[in-house]
Structures are given as C-alpha cells and as structure tokens.
Amino acid sequence: MRLLFIVDPLERLALAGDTSYALMLAAAQAGHEVLTCQIEHLGLEHDDPIAEVVSTTVLEAAIPDEAFRVGKRQTVRLGDVEMVLMRKDPPFDVSYLHATWILEQARGKTLLVNDPRGLRELNEHLTVLRFPELTPPTLVTRSTRRLDAFLHEQGGTIVVKPVDGFGGLGIFVVRAGDLNTSSIFETATGGGSRWTLAQRYLPEAVHGDKRILLVDGEAVGAVLRVPAAQEARGNLHVGGRAVKTTLDAHDQRIIAAIAPTLREYGQILVGIDVIGGRLTEINITSPTGVRHIAALDQRDVAADVLGRLIAAATARTHA
User: Fold this and answer.
1) 233 pLDDT band (50/70/90 cuts)?
2) Exposed end of the chain (fewer CB within 10 Å): N or C?
3) How many CB atoms lie within 10 A of CB 1?
4) CATH 3.60.15.10 fits 137-201, yes or no
5) If you ran DSSP here, which 8-state letter would residue 45 be given?
C-alpha cells in the first residue's frame, strides 16, 4: 500500500519517542510505500485533493539525518493512496484548520487517520465534557473572578490549562493562598481575553497520568507518565518518567463509553489520558505513546497499530 504521512518537518522529529516515526518505520519494514509531506504541501485541483510529497525511505536510527532518505517532490492525488495519516503536531491554528478543509475533499477516496471533521469539532480538552460522569469537575471561563470562586469550590486546589493547549504547555496547579494565584489567572485568561479550562486537582496525579492508546475504539496499550520531582506535569518531554501499567475496570468503562463517539467522528487513532480513574483529555491530532509502550511491554506496538490501520484501509476498498 501507499501511505501518506502528513507530519512536521522530518528533521524536527524526536525519534526516541515519536509515534509517527514508529509507524513510518513499521510501514517501511512491512513493505509499504511511505510518502511524507507537511500541511503546506496540501492543495486542491478543482475538487480533487492533492499533495506535493516525497517518497521516504525509513530506517532504524537515533537521529533524523540517518533515519530518512527522501526522493524528489512529486504531486499525488490523495485518492491514489490507500491511507492518509494526519500527524501534524499542534497547535491547531488557522493553517491546520485550512488543511482539514482540504482533507475534507478526500473523504471516501482514501482512509483518513483521523477524519478532518472530527479533528475540527472534537477539541482535545473540551470533548471530555461530552462524558461529564467520567471527568473531574470542570470550568471553562474567561473570568478570573469565576476561577477564584471555582478554586475554593473545589477544595482549594485546581489545575488550569489553555483550551487550545498541548504538550503540557501553560498548565498550572493552583492552590488557595498562593501569592501568585491572581497573576496565574490573569495570565491563563489573557486578562479576560481568552477561555481557559480549570479542573479539580486529582491527588492521584502525583502517581502519574495514564496514556491509553486506542485504535478504532479498542485499547492497544498504555503507559503511566509519572511526573519528575518538583514537577506537576507527567508529559514525557518535560521530564516525566514512563512506567509500565495495565488497564483496570475504570479504564475499560471509559473506553466503552467514548468509543461510539470516536467512531461517529472517524477518530481511529486516539490517545486518552486518565488520572485516578477520571478522563482528563482525548488526544486526536497526533497521539503518542507507541514507542514507550513498546519498550515497557517488550512488543511491537507500532506493527500492531499499523496492522489494524491496514485492515481498516483494506476493508474500506472492498466495501
């Protein structure tokens, strides 16, 4: 099969933990043709979605210069490849939005991972509120006064983060009595000019947040991301530690509850974050975790994920 990966520039990928690289490597090792491009290489010729791509040889290596060999740029119709994987990292900005409109024209012509309609409509932080019984108490506001009230309503400790945030950026744990509280609220809301999200602080966060990787609503693995000392965030790129974990009854209940919505919106490859049995985020733009789960579980998670995606693409062509 021909697989097109829409990614950030290859030289910027951090290969040790990059899921896109893991999937590209698995595809190459399985004999599939790997094509790559960035979102600026997408376009339309009348109603036909196209991309300016490079054929990409993918090798096992530690740095991008040794991992990728690219050919000359060529134009391909998205309908002529069997799968398009939209793996551009956030932020979800105007360019990303425009890219989803272009990809909209490819629906029904190829397997889209993930479907652009869902990428637009399912905000990674707000979508959890479709399942309020699964999430910690949450507030979305521009008001610093309301944030201060919420802080006290939730027992004196909350987590504040940007509605459009990613990668742990802009996340604060706020405690009543902290002299920086008003400044944090002003910073988080941009002085009342942008929405921010606040949630009750879950004490279990000190033991890590669980990233669960789903393909078509089914779990393929999980990793516990434990914060470093003197750090509230478990994100691995800010010093969090990857720890082996398993799924429990709370996790299974969450997966069963959200899977129908993910399928409805065409979100095939998804990462969910769970703390203390509570759903905190649903990551759909470029969910990670494959390489860390593989290292901890000693199994080829990328090949498993890719196999499921290939099966979905094959089923689509024979439908």
Assistant:
1) low
2) C
3) 17
4) no
5) E
